[in-house]
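Comment on the following before class.
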Amino acid sequence: MKKILVIDDDAKARKLYRVILEQAGYVIWEAPGAPEGIRLAETEKINLIILDIHLPEMDGISAVRILKAYGPTKHIPVVVVTALAMPGDREMVLAAGADAYLAKPIKRNELLQVVRDFLEGERKVAE
């Protein structure tokens, strides 16, 4: 089973991801913040990370940079999501090392397509 880590401080958002992704057959791990999420990514065999950009303690951009700079986690696809999509955000997020960017509200089919593309090898992790 493929494991997806959802890092989002909004419990309702985490529940939505869990429902959508578990129905699609994935195992979901959750973290309310970047430090906890990074620790889980380092210790569990995570196949993909969904990361909110606006988090307490450490923002999503900083978390992406850490995840992509560290050996055990740099190969994990990171899909960054945000409710406050601003012009230039997509480019900034991808430049920081994220592999994909989605704006909230999340569209079920769009989310599942991005996840499947990475987990089934149709889409590669940014190098």
Observations:
- The longest strand covers residues 3-7.
- Residues 51 and 80 are 5 Å apart (CA to CA).
- Strands lie at 3-7, 27-31, 48-52, 78-82, 100-103.
- Residues 11-23 form the longest helix (13 residues).
